[in-house]
Input
Amino acid sequence: MHTIIEPFKIKSVEPIKFTTVQERETILKRAWYNPFLFSAEDVLIDLLTDSGTSAMSAKQWAGVMDGDESYAGSRSFFRFERVVRKLTGFKHIIPTHQGRAAEKILFSIVGGKGKSIPNNSHFDTTRANVEYSGAEAMDFPTPEGKKPEVIADFKGNMDLNALKAFIETTGPEKIPLCMLTITNNSGGGQPVSMANIRDTKKLLKKYNIPLFLDACRFAENAFFIKKREKGFAKKSILEIVQEMFSYADGCTMSAKKDALVNMGGFLAMNNDRLATLSRNILIVTEGFPTYGGLAGRDLEAIAQGLEEVLDEHYLTYRIRSVEYLGEKLTAAGVPIVRPPGGHAIYLDAKNFAKHIPPQRYPGQSIVCELYRVGGIRGVEIGSVMFGRKDPKTKEFIAPPMELVRLAIPRRVYTQSHIDYVVEVVKDVYAHRDRLKDYEIIEEAPVLRHFTAKFKPLS
Ligand code: F0G
Output
C-alpha cells in the first residue's frame, strides 16, 4: 500500500518562529511554567489543542465572503441548520459561539443543586458548567478506559453497569440527562462504539432519562466505528453519523473541532420545551436564534466544514496522521495511551516520569520540558486539570491518569513537522531523569489549569 498522504495541497502558508533553548528557558520562567500563558508566537509546533486551530478550505473561505449577515433569518443560518439536521436529525438547532456556551445554556436549565449528570468522562468545561449550576458531574469510563497500556477498540465506552448502579442509588428523578462524549477527550481521545451508544440509550430509556451527545469529534468517532466495529465497514460515514445521533435526544457541539472552523458551536435537541427555554437564554446571552453567538460567515464556514469532515480521504489521513505519531513513539519505548486516539497522542506521564508523584505534577513537568527542548506546546491532562482536595480531610485526590496531550490541529502540520515532534519527545524521554517536580503557587477556584502559576522544585 502507498503512503497515506495529506488529501490537499497548500495554498496559503503561515511562518513559524524559531527560538533558542536559552530564549525558551526565559519564556517559560516569564510564563510561570504554564504554557497557557505563553505568547503563541513563541511556540514552534503548537499541539496545545485541536480546537479552533483547523486550517479552513478554499470553499470555507469562499463561504466566509458569501455569508449573509442579516440579523434575523439569515440565509447562512438556514444552510447551517439544513446541514446539522441532515447529520443529527434533531428538531431544534441552536447556534452558539462555542461548545461551552451550549453547555452553559443546557445546564443552567437542567442542572442545579441536588442534580447529577453522568458521562463517560466530562471534559473540563463540561464538568465546570455542570458544577457551576450546582449539580454534580459523574464519570463512568470502563475499567480499560482508565488503563493507558491496555489496547482495546473502544476505550471511550461508558461503563453501563456502573451507570445503572448509579441511577438506582441516586434515583432517576435526580438525573435530568446523561451525556456521552464522543470521542472521549479526557480519556485519551478514545472512541465510543455504536453498540455502547445504543445500549446507553436502551438503559436510560427504562428510567426516562434523555441522552445527550457531547459531539465535538463525532466524525472521528464515526470513522473508528467504520474501521473497528463489526457490520459498519460498508456503511458511509454519513450513515454511521446519522445512526449515532439517532439514539440521542440532543447534543452539545463545539464546531471548533470536527466542523473544521476556528469558532462556533451549537446546541440541538428534540424536546420543544427545552428548546424554548434554551432560546430564551440564548437571546439574553448569545444572540437571536438565527445567529446565536456567530456571524453569518461563521455559519457558512461551519456548514461547509461539516460536509467536508465526512470525506473518507480526509478522515483516513486524519486518523492515520495521529496513529503515525503514536506508532513512532511506541516503537521508541515512550509510554502513551494505546491505541492512539482520534485527535491527539496522550503521553502517559505516570510511566514517563515515574519519579514524580501526582501531587508534584509529572505531566506539567513533561509539558515544560517539551517546550524547553523543542519549542513544542502540549497540555497537561492530569492532576493540574482534575486533581482536587478532599473537602473534609484536605487530602490530595489525583485523577485516574496523568497525561500530556499532544493534540494535532486539523490540516495544519505535515509529516515532517510530526517527525520533528517524535525526535523531541524521544529526546525528552531519554533524559527523563532530569524532569523536575513542580508546585502550584497561585490558582483560580475553577479551571485552574488555564491561569495557575507554577514553580519547579530542585
Ligand atoms: N466538550 C469536549 C469533549 C471538548 O473537548 C471541548 C473543548 C468542549 C466540550 C468545549 O468546547 O472549547 O468550544 O467551548 N475542548 C478543547 C480542547 C478546548 O482543547 O480539547 P469549546
Observations:
- The chain is about 40% helix and 15% strand.
- The domain at 58-308 is CATH 3.40.640.10 (Aspartate Aminotransferase; domain 2).
- The chain has two domains: 21-50+311-457, 58-308.
